[in-house]
Specification:
The complex is a heterodimer of chains A (363) and B (306). With 363 residues, chain A is mainly α. Chain A is built from 13 helices and no strands. Chain A has helices at residues 5-33, 38-50, 53-78, 86-103, 110-138, 142-162, 196-213, 215-225, 227-232, 237-264, 275-285, 290-314, 320-335. The chains are: A mainly alpha (363), B mainly alpha (306). At the A-B interface, helix 5, helix 6, helix 11 and helix 13 of A face helix 4, helix 10 and helix 12 of B.
Chain lengths: 363, 306
Amino acid sequence: MSTRPWQETGEAIALPILALSGGLLLFGVFVWFGGHDPIEVWKLLFVGAFGDSFSWQNTLQRSAPLMLTALCVALPARAGLTIIGGEGALVLGGLAAAGLPYLMPLPANAFGTLLLLLAAAAAGALWIALAGALRQFRGVNETISSLLLGYIAIALFKHFVEGPMRDPASLNKPSTLPIAEGLRIGGMAGYDVHWGLAWGVVLCLVAAVWLGWTTHGFATRVVGGNARAARLVGLPSHQLIITACALGGAAAGLAGGIEVAAVHTSANASLIAGLGYAGILVSFVARHQPLAIIPVAILFGGFGAAGSLLQRRMGLPDASVQVLLGFSFVLILASEALRGRLFNFGLVPKRPALPAAGQPKAA
Amino acid sequence: MEGHAVFDVLLAVLGGAIRVGTPFLFVSLGECLTEKSGRINLGLEGVLVFSAMAGFGGAYLTGSPWLGVLLAGFSGALLGLLHGLVCSLQRVNDIAMGIALMLLGLGLAFYLGKPLIQPQAPQIPSIPLGWWSGSQQVQAALGINALFPLGVLLALAMGWAFANTRWGLLVRMVGDSSDAARALGTSVSGVRIAATAAGGFIAGLGGASLSLYYPGSWNEQLSSGQGLIAVALVIFARWSPLRCLGAALLFGGAGALGPALQSVGVSGYYYLFNAVPYVLTLAILIWTCSPKRSLKGAPMELGVSR
């Protein structure tokens, strides 16, 4: 490929923005058919997501778990695996965080919280590492096995929350025993945004450093980019791939633990909200780049935050944000087809680019 | 008394297998057709719920359940067509697109379906296969969805067509070797788009079964993930339409086992029973795969079978 670096960077930024504008435009036409004023809708979307400090806090709060579940897709993808079971790792992480106090007494301070989060991360890591191990040792496709493991995780979650771990006081909405006051995660420095955001941002940064500046991360990318070359130079593929899966799973498990410790205060069905699936899309839009995940997650967190405002002010159904996200994601994914052509008007067409890291490998 | 309880449970599971399994049957047949052409559609959950809404709306507005079924099929085909078209573009990942389609289908269904939550729509008639029995229970268990026999016929027809017709062979060729298809001058994208749209139509019929027969209304909790399972069902059935029928009944029966046991006093393992099909599918995958060979019977071009 003879593309100049500025072209690649320019495209990586311009394509999603163009596609997103297309999604907003399409959404405007869609609500216009329903008799709403599209300009008012666009304005409210912006105000609801980024208009004032309240909406910013709401936006950031929603983006925290998305960053972590996106890492669950991005890290294995850089090692060459397409994992879509983040939802399962997330609910198991939440279950582990809510379940740890059942097993052992915890100090009601930051150290206790750390133990909760470690339990959450370990549960998620085990679950996704299992998908990676099945792939490496038995040749089971990791996309399918992680999807199946996700359903099994959700069934386990419901079984424990509504059965053995149920708090008898939770009548209408089965939940586990609430987490002790001292173990909960609070807001950062007087803001409503809880510390989960810091976890998300820091882990994305750490992941970027790991992939870009460490030997281990480089080896992982080699395995993901060219498995045969990795074998030829004697890289331990099994170990690297399963580690990448475990790290991704740990991030998603942590997301579940944080949601439980900061938002829901106990494990219950509210945790199963599709955050794992949304993370898949965030990671694909960010092209599995941990640094790009941060702004993408904030943007889509912002759309989620704007949803309630659209509902209150314009009487739009609560699903309108989902429609907007659907349009945007379809267009962003479709815009991949323009890669390598956007700034290349009338030049000789190049041969297709190498498949991106996350795409299923051609045998 | 014991024997009576066992009979009750068996009967409830059989009736439930057909009742719960009908949407499973249609989504798995739709996914089977799509995957046979070498493409995966993970977004059938969105297709299913969107077409359930469209089918309900169609039946409510026209007063005819069968027009609703038809509308459900066509709205499923529309989303399938979108998936097929976008995935035909260069470098578009079909797994990510499937998730996006799921989001879009669910969003559109919930948005457009808001006014349909209250009203009642005419239902698909049930076929009373339990007419010979005086027992109310037997009659209730064997009154089956009129779409179910249609699905059985479709499974038979698809199994026959894949082996014996020009169209069936074309789909399989595109799914097994796009190079061979190109060498013969077949448009690989064209066949895949057609197969994905047709698969969407079939899955749409499953949506109609949800909103027009069982549970038989429109609300946002209508599907309990039947569309998401389609991919697992097809693997379980090893890409054979006839085995899809068996798989759909088995998955439906497993779903009905929990409530049936609950009604005779065994409770507490409801969700674990629901998870049995997934564990089985995973066990089959682990059993049949090895690092040296991929799944037997899987279309060679399918990204996930390598």
